[in-house]
Design a protein that fits this description.
173 residues; Arc Repressor Mutant, subunit A; Rna Polymerase Sigma Factor, Chain: A; elongated; 2 strands; mainly alpha; 8 helices; 2 domains
Amino acid sequence: MRHIEKRLIHQIKSGNEKAFRNLFYMHSDKLFVWAYKIIRNESAAEDIVQDFFINYWEKRETLDFYPSFLAYAYRSVYNSSLNYLRDNERFIHGYEITVDLIDDSVDSEDAQELMRLLLKAIDELPKRCKKIFVMATLEKKKYKEVADMLGISVNTVKVQVSKAYRILKEKIG
């Protein structure tokens, strides 16, 4: 742990709010980027980082950081991000499953079950097929854009998206 960080943590244990703000400004941006990379939701990533710092302030007198504060912070934000994804089943790899993927004729009671089945089925797609499907449907990228990003032909993107829909239709019905 860096000397400055150690000094700030010692001051924070004594209740020094200015030291806490300094530590927050030192690391909050890095922690936000880390959370955002995992969940792909800006406001939720901000909440996760703020919750981490609130919990730290509340437990400041009892927490010890080994090997470092930043290692502890990254691990904590990582775990909170995974919990967020787990608790928000309508998300897959940080992308929200929107109702436009589900037929309008499905009533609201069945929609929740269908959403769960859809998430499971998407997650079970072959790796390459899932990546292309997620980019084209959930990220709403044009087929040409997906093809350019992955260095493949537009036709390959069309085939893979079509394959994904076929597999999803077979699994869900």
